[in-house]
Structures are given as C-alpha cells and as structure tokens.
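Section 3.1: Structural characterization of target chains.
Under the original work plan, the team committed to producing a structural model for every single-chain target entering the pipeline before any wet-lab resources were allocated. The record below documents one such target. The sequence was received from the expression subgroup and is listed exactly as submitted; it comprises 519 residues.
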Amino acid sequence: MLRRMSVALMALAAALVTPAPAQAAADPPVVRTDAGRVRGENTAEGRQFLGIPYAEPPVGKLRWREPRPVRPWQGVRTARDFGNTCVQSASWDPGYEQPSHTEDCLDLNVYVPDGAARRAVLVWFHGGGLTAGAGRDVVPDTFARRTGTVVVTVNYRLGAMGFLATTGLDGEARDGVSGNFGMLDQQAALRWVHANIGRFGGDPARVTIAGESAGGRSVCTQLASPTAKGLFRAGIIQSGAYGDCGARPHGTAVAQGAAFAQQLGCADLACLRAKPAAEVLAAQSAFDWAPVVGGDFLPRQPEEAFARGASAGVPVMNGANQDEGRLFAFARFDLSGTPLTAERYPAVMREDYGEEALARYPLSAHPSPTLAYATAQGDQLFACPALRLDGTLAGRGKVYAYEFADRTSPPFASLRNLGTDFDFGATHVNEVQYLFKHFGLRSPLNAEQRTLARQMIQYWGSFVRDGVPRATGQPAMPARPGTVLSLRTSSAGGNAPSTTVHGEHQCNLWDAESVTQSG
C-alpha cells in the first residue's frame, strides 16, 4: 500500500557578516560559513541564500556512503539559485516535468527576515514519499518574515540513492547497518545549521525540525534517533505518522537490496557504484524505500523508542488532514479516467481493507465510491496513526495535536494544473499552501482562507519560537491525547477543539488492525 501511495504519486556576527553601510543597503548580503563565503540576495521579504552545499557531493566512491563535510572554497560563492534536485523520476509537480539524474544535490536554502535579532530556526524536510521532492518545493520567505524566524529547507538523498542496504554496504558502515543515507544527510544538514546559522542571525539553541508527509515521517524518525540528540529542541510532524513511523527491519532491507542489485545485474558494490544514475532510478520503482532499524542511527523502531522513553523528550506538534486519502484515491482511479464504480466498490474494499471496513464505510454515507474508498484509506493510513502517535509521544513530552479540516481548500498546485473538478477537500499536502508558497507560486487562497492561513502561521511560528503553539484570539492547541484543534475557516465554524476525531475516523477498527499487524 505504501509503495502504491508513493508511486501514485540576536544578531549577525559582525566579524562574519559583511556589514552594509547605509548608502549601500541594497548590496547583496554576504555571510562567511565554515566552508567559505556565500552571497545571497535581498528580497521584499528579507534575505535569502539558495543552494548552499552542506556536504560533499555523494558521487563516485562516495555514492552510498555517509555524508562527508563539504570542502572549503575560495572567494565568494553565489547563493542566488537553487541547487540540483536529487535523483528522482518525473512527476506532475511543477518543475518536475523531467527526471533528475543528478547526485550532486546536498544543498540547503536559508531565508532570513530583515533585522538583527537572534532568531529561532525552522528546518524543513520536504515530502515526496522519500523518492521525490526537494527543498525548493516550498518558499518560506513570507513565513520567516511574519514569524520572525529563520527558515532552512533541505535536500537529501532519495529512493535507492538514499536508502539502499546491502551486505556489502553493511561492511562499510561503522555500525554494520546500511540504508539510512538520506536520514544521515538530514542530520548532516542539522549539524551545518548548528555550526553556521548564528552567522545568518539564527539561534542554534532554538532549532525546530518540521516536515510534511515523508518530511513528517523524517521528523518522527529523527525524534527516535540517538545520533540526532541535541540537534533540535522541537519537532512538527505534518501527515507523517503513516505506518506508525515504522522503519524496515534490517534483514528485510538487505534482502530488498539484494533483489535490487540483481535487477541491475550487479554482484558487488563496484558494479552498483558504476551504474549510471538513470539505471539506478529505473530499477528502484519496484521497491519500498524507507529508513532501516538496527544500527546506531535507529537502534529500535520509533514506536518502541517513544514508548520506552528512549527518544528526544522535546515538544512536538503532530497532525493530519481530514481528507488525506482523496489525493491517493484520485491518483488510483479518477486520474486515469476509471473512477471507482458502485459495482466494483465492495470487491475493492474487501480486497484492500476487509469485510468490516466495507460495513464501516457504506456507499450511502459518501458522495461517490471513490470518496468512500478515500475516506477509509485516509483514516487507515494517516488520521488514526496520527492519533495513536499523540498517545505514544505523550509519555515522553508535550504533544500538541491538530487536524487541518478546511474542506474548501483549493487543490495544491500539482492538482490545479490537471484541470480536474474532483472534490479533494482537505486532502494530503493541502495545508502546506497555508504556511508557505508552494512551489513558489502565488497563493490561490480566498479571503477567509487567507485569514486561516495567518492563524496557522501564528500557531506554527509561536511553536518554533517558544515551544507552545498560540494564535491571537484563537483557542489553544490541545496537549491532551484524543483531543485535536480542528483548523477551519470562519464559515465552517472556525478553529475549535474536537474530542470526536477518533470516532469520526473509525479508529477503533484501524487501531485494532495495527495491533494485529504489529503482533
């Protein structure tokens, strides 16, 4: 199911920052990092520095190795353009019409509001099923200005390049467990932030990691990683609890790696490293790519680490969207011109979710068979895992819970480009455009949606700055398992706590299924 889901889709340090005399206020900003100077640019929202390398390019002999510190450079490096997109297939997302075969991609982007305060920092990990996406997918410059925070967006290795595990790679790993290269990239980026963000006006002691979908899953994984200790002080998980944040068992990952190598016709690492990126990319689609449990990076499954208290005890914001499954159901059925029919619905539901689920999601309760299926899919994959995670995380620190529930939200940019009239509601990814410029595009929100966006930015910004999500004149975001803050426009009742989400999403059914599977 997860593979199908993936496929379907304070101050600037005076000695380190070039000061701008009053008569040259528009001069491009220059900052000295630990590897060399970078020149960004001034914008209407502040300053931005794009495409800064945080690690050596993982090419040649460095393919499938832990990230290495970037080599220093001479002179001033221009930081006005995004870096390369990591290896991935083409997709319907804007800017991804062609595949990328570029492995030199370990870059990050820094957005800084004007002024010289020592600001809290948000580090954003992009979504894309761990096989797609890039830091450039969101432009958070307005968020940075409105919240008074520094925002960093990160590229990390994806798919086979980021998560291949083999016996040979195990032999090269210090702890004997390979397959977490993309996650280690994220930690390398966080170490770069700790070493350098003060020079951009950020406070390395106040770093929050955040992400949506696979980015949220990344946050969940980093919370459970002992090697991430001290790299952040809070986390935000947006639609990232799917699969209960589970990682692949080491033996499973190595067996998948062996099958992958066989598909490429390789019997050793030298052969694998010699394969062109395009061939690696073509071979990866038949496999799931995810973190691997068992080594120093992730000694135990995140769920177990949270339950045992063996994880970062930092504040967390966690949530999902009310209609998560509609994106995936659309991609499976309606996108190809074959909407799910009433005649097929019972058989598809029985095959995917069982007889009890068919009874819980009758066609009579939904506008169409596709939307009925989508409701079950979203509840099983996202809503109920998010609520379970609230309870598990609550044992080791504060957890603030939300549900994005604006069913009038416009489809995000990728879907708008398709020209469909499908009713996506509050589907997967749709909340991102309320926080950032999605794919750098102009906001499609109407007046009351823009009001909700301002409120959400306040909740998120307050959490990044102080560890508690607040918004002026709005209810508190609950920190009690089983209660969430429903985020809605004023015409739909406005933001309000809800204690009924567990029942609305049929979580007694899906929680029981999760216990059976884990047992």
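The longest strand covers residues 202-212.
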